[in-house]
Design a protein that fits this description.
Elements lengths: L3 E5 L8 H11 L6 E5 L1 H11 L3 H7 L12 H8 L8 E3 L2 H11 L11 E7 L4 E6 L10 E4 L4 H8 L4 E3 L2 E3 L2 E5 L8 H6 L4 E5 L14 H20 L5 E3 L14 H14 L1 H15 L22 H7 L3 H5 L2
Parallel strand pairs: 1-2, 1-10, 2-4, 3-7, 5-6, 10-11
Antiparallel strand pairs: 4-5, 4-9, 8-9
GO molecular function: hydrolase activity
Keywords: Hydrolase, Lipid degradation, Lipid metabolism, Membrane, Transmembrane, Transmembrane helix
Protein name: PNPLA domain-containing protein
Length: 325
């Protein structure tokens, strides 16, 4: 059976676009057999791999707000300018851990129903860390693989943006956001066994007319340019890259979550023809004697054929128009 993988890149609240994309793929009966995620993409990859549907996750999003950012203002400011400062970040990250644990319980990576890889970076070893629910079919260079770690801890580690979130201690390792090494983990999805990889890249370094008067504005712009360039390179491991442009949205603009989901949904629907082209081409090449071998991951229904795709795309309904009613 041809296996389809999806790589979900980081991008703060813009990562909600992943949910819209997954919903569009579900409605088109395109199965996702394995997922790789970095930073906010790791949240979606973990919960989807645990067994939640895109619709269930979309309905859950409105309950998430800034209260999940457990700022440590006092400790951060008190220690920031001291020689013996030991502060590691402004946000503890404990509430993010609790949020994921609430949805996954005590599940460890090996307990996930589907193959999932979550990316982080190990500050002490200077290498990429992969929290994987299954053994990789081929090793990734300069990467260490961990499987006996809780899903919640793996997500917390992948989302630990340096300086903003406190790094995550695990045994003798110190983990931070995987986006500093690979923000769009297409190679990890391929290593999980995907024959076809769809990558979702959410970071753009569009020209901006800004004065850049502050240290933080310059730093944020430098990071954005670097991550956007790196994402384009790593996304080349994918068969198709989806780049839903949501506009200038801040990392924690929670009130823009629905907009991001809708843009992801609309963008995926606009690209369905290209997705079906790739699926049909690879399926014919790999399974000439059994073109219907692709089956839906959840329902077991036959994969939509090339001939039926136009009808299917035109009848896909908008979930977002329904939830506003």
């Amino acid at each position: 059976m041809t296996k389809i993988g999806i790589a979900l890149g980081g991008g703060g609240i813009v990562g909600c676009a992943h949910l819209g994309i997954l919903l569009a793929l579900e409605e088109a009966r395109i199965p996702i057999h394995c997922l790789a995620g970095t930073s906010s993409g790791s949240i979606v990859a973990a919960l989807y791999g645990f067994g939640y549907s895109a619709r269930e996750l979309i309905e859950f999003v409105p309950s998430i707000d800034r209260s999940y950012l457990d700022y440590d203002y006092g400790q951060f400011l008190n220690k920031l300018f001291r020689k013996d400062a030991q502060t590691r970040g402004l946000v503890r990250g404990k509430k993010l851990f609790e949020l994921i644990a609430e949805k996954t319980g005590d599940a460890r990576m090996v307990d996930l129903k589907n193959p999932v890889a979550i990316l982080s970076a190990d500050l002490r070893r200077g290498r990429q860390a992969l929290f994987a629910s299954r053994p990789l079919l081929h090793p990734l260079p300069d990467s260490d693989v961990f499987s006996d770690i809780s899903v919640a801890r793996a997500v917390q580690a992948s989302c630990a943006v340096p300086l903003l979130f406190q790094p995550v201690e695990y045994k003798n390792h110190l983990f931070v956001d995987g986006g500093i090494l690979e923000n769009c983990p297409a190679s990890a999805a391929r290593a999980l066994g995907a024959d076809i990889v769809l990558a979702v890249d959410l970071v753009f370094a569009d020209p901006v007319d800004a004065p850049f008067h502050s240290f933080m504005s310059i730093l944020y712009r430098v990071i954005t340019i670097n991550v956007a360039s790196q994402s384009k390179r790593t996304a080349q491991h994918a068969d198709l890259v989806l780049r839903p442009h949501v506009g200038g949205i801040g990392m924690f603009d929670f009130n823009q979550a629905e907009h991001c989901m809708e843009r992801g949904y609309d963008h995926a629907k606009e690209r369905l023809d290209e997705i079906f082209d790739i699926l049909d081409r690879v399926d014919r090449a790999c399974h000439r004697k059994a073109p219907s071998s692709m089956t839906h991951l959840l329902t077991g229904k036959p994969f939509a054929s090339f001939r039926s795709r136009q009808r299917l795309a035109s009848t896909t309904s908008s979930f977002f128009s329904k939830i506003r009613q």
